[in-house]
Amino acid sequence: MKSHFKFSKSQRNGIFSLILLIILLQCVYFYIDFSSEELSVNKADLANYENEIDSLRLVELEARKPKTYPFNPNYITDYKGASLGMSNEEIDRLLAFRKQNQWINSTKQFQEVTKISDTLLDVISPYFKFPDWVTNANQNTTSKPNYSFNKKPKTFAEKQDLNKATAQELQKVNGVGDYYSERIIKLRNSFPGGFIDIIQLQDVYGLKPEVIEKISEEFAVKTPRTIKKIVLNKASVDELVTIQHIDYNLAFSIIEQRQLREGFKSFDELKKVKDFPVNKIDIIKLYLSLD
Questions:
Q1: 128 - beta bridge partners?
Q2: Residue at which a domain ends, from 83, 105, 137
Q3: What PANTHER family does UniProt report for this protein, alphabetically (predicted)?
Q4: For residue 271, what is the domain's CATH number?
């Protein structure tokens, strides 16, 4: 052990020099300020930059807001009405009116039928788009809303059967070209027996609601395929997954919600199910019954 602590003269000088260097560096670190000089900030430029960032943020938020496109109020569905801010009662009044094969021909008549508030009417009425023959007739007359026009909407009997329509016949509708006519027929042929209801056109990718409305003015599903509806309050997971837009995760969530509610009282309660595709509820309802 003695050999480990025995140093020569040169080694002792080296150790002493090292200790002296360490002490010197500690003194330099302690007494000398190495901090950098404070940066000067141009407050006016900084404020302009922040304002520009805020403006860009507002533009982006505005661009992300859902856009409402012109639509015919006669074809408002449960989902469309809810997205516009209408209550279930207001939507039901409109649907009941339409089931009588009657048509809304003016903004005033829409309020009379649905009884929506003036405030909501002011918000959504600018997007109302009635057929040209209705608009022209309204401009040329001062009589009450229920008009008798030469050109009336086609009755169910006058419309063509969507399940038998050819691509050429579909292309006569404004907005349906080669691309969409082929997609409609491809979707129709994917179901043995064709469509159940024209609302299934919502599953045609990219087909706008306005174009679907135009198609519904000329076509109807007159020969719907026969299906056996599934009783929602008794359905098993395996039965539910046979329905369009319902996978196993959603089926389990539906059954869990059904147990919590001790059975569904209406289809609208499905909207409370976690991850339920609310915009597809009208299609899903085609396959379901409550009893």
A1: 71
A2: 137
A3: ENDONUCLEASE/EXONUCLEASE/PHOSPHATASE FAMILY DOMAIN-CONTAINING PROTEIN 1, ENDONUCLEASE_EXONUCLEASE_PHOSPHATASE FAMILY DOMAIN-CONTAINING PROTEIN 1
A4: 1.10.150.320
**Segment holding 219, helix H or strand E:** strand 219-220
Q: What is the pLDDT of residue 148?
A: 42
Distance CA 268, CA 257 (A): 13
Task: Give dist(CA 283, CA 272) in Å, integer.
Answer: 17
For the chain, how are helix, strand and coil distributed in percent, rounded to 5?
Answer: 55, 5, 40
How many domains does the structure of the chain reveal? Answer: 3
Own/partner contacts of 148-155, CB < 8 Å, gap of 24 or more, are 153/103, 153/217, 154/217, 154/218, 155/101
Query: Is residue 237 domain-shared with residue 210, that is, in the same domain?
Result: no
pLDDT, averaged in runs of 10, over the chain (291 residues):
68 85 86 66 80 81 68 85 87 88 86 90 86 58 45 84 93 89 93 92 90 92 91 92 92 92 89 89 90 79
Residue 241 lies in a domain: yes
Say whether 196 sits in a helix, a strand or coil: coil
Integer CA distances (angstroms), 93 to 55, 136, 266, 268, in order: 43, 27, 17, 16
Does residue 110 lie within any of the structural domains?
A: yes
Cα gap 133→251, rounded to integer Å: 46
Whether 200 and 224 have beta carbons less than 8 Å apart is answered as no
Is residue 237, in this structure, part of any structural domain at all?
A: yes
- The pTM (predicted TM-score) of the whole model is 0.48
Beta bridge partners, 219, equal 160
Domain that holds residue 173: 160-220
Which pLDDT does position 78 carry in this prediction?
84
Q: Is residue 12 part of a domain?
A: no
